[in-house]
Specification:
51 residues, two-stranded antiparallel ribbon, alpha+beta, 29% helix, globular
């Protein structure tokens, strides 16, 4: 969901200081793993009730 967003997109995590998609893409090991696997790109299904 977040990988297609621009690097300058601000993220307000709720549990720490604000960051950007670019900073998270560079420093967050989970996002690096998702990007390497080719996940997170392209359209996603909308949220469903009860998720």
């Amino acid at each position: 969901v977040c990988l297609p967003l621009d690097d300058s997109t601000v993220v307000l995590s709720g549990h720490g200081p604000q960051t950007t998609i670019g900073q998270e893409r560079a420093a967050n090991p989970y996002l690096r793993q998702v990007a390497a696997a080719g996940q997170g790109a392209g359209p996603t299904a909308p949220p469903r009730r009860g998720m």
